[in-house]
Amino acid sequence: MRLRISHISEYSYDAPLFYALQRLRLVPKSGPTQTVTEWSLSIEGAREEVRYDDAFDNDTRLLSINDEPHRIIVTASGVVDTVDANGIFGPHRGLAPLWLFRQPTDLSRPGQGVAALAEVVGEGEGGEIERLHALMALVRERVAYTVGATNAVTTAEEALAQGQGVCQDHAHIFISAARRLGFAARYVSGYLRLDGADEQTASHAWAEAYVEGLGWAGFDSSNGISPDERYVRVACGRDYRDAMPVMGIRLGQAEERLAVRITVEQ
């Protein structure tokens, strides 16, 4: 499937912004499930200082802002050809060792709720893939997709306890429980082509677990499926903080407003 994507982030400030740093992960790479045929990243109100591939093999850009702008606009857009690989991404890549993805993080640290979830799956029948699919279904069953119920710092345990969340929370809960079951697991950020809707309010996220003989396999608990040709991956990491599209710091008293416009069309 050929997908055209546009992701515009506009930051507005009510006072001059004296200094800020931003880290962007908004550039997808070609790989086993996709070929990036064209992609551009334009920046207004800031300048790119350096670009590099991080430990998780994500294309990463660092921006600096020190010209006292009132507005910063970052536009990522391009065309990506995708294939349906039945959710299998394949062999491990990047500098980060596989064992790192078995370690808990602040956002994915398991508590009693996640431990109980993993125990239910661990007592089920079937091989590794069957248990991971059962985990995906269980997360979807226990945590309703509810916009606004959580935020960027909500942990897997907190989202599971309240029974509500979004794709970020579903991914963190799956990752936390999968690690509890002994799997290496990671967070993936990217885009999803929704049926009948080109415009979206946010990018998407899902989880992957490493299965011997198959490599990394994807699981999207928000939709109850493994990623297919409608998915475009951009970045991955131990949790959301490693793969978040934009993060940064700023100095000054200016209040920030963010407007995001995303389109994913075939």
What do these coordinates show?
Helix 1 (112-122) crosses helix 2 (128-142), helix 1 packs across helix 4 (167-180) and helix 3 (156-162) crosses helix 4. A hairpin with a 5-residue loop joins strand 4 (47-53) and strand 5 (59-65). The chain is globular and about 60 Å long. The chain folds into two domains: 2-82 and 246-265, Sandwich (Immunoglobulin-like); 88-242, C8orf32 fold, CATH 3.10.620.30. The protein has 266 residues and is of the alpha+beta class. 19% of the residues lie in helices and 42% in strands. It starts with a strand and ends with a strand. The model has no long low-confidence stretch (mean pLDDT 94).
Write the layout of secondary structure elements.
Blueprint: E1 2-13, E2 19-27, E3 34-44, E4 47-53, E5 59-65, E6 71-82, E7 88-90, H1 112-122, H2 128-142, E8 144-145, H3 156-162, E9 164-165, H4 167-180, E10 185-192, E11 199-200, E12 204-211, E13 215-219, E14 231-237, H5 240-243, E15 246-251, E16 256-265
Helix pairs in contact: 1-2, 1-4, 2-4, 3-4
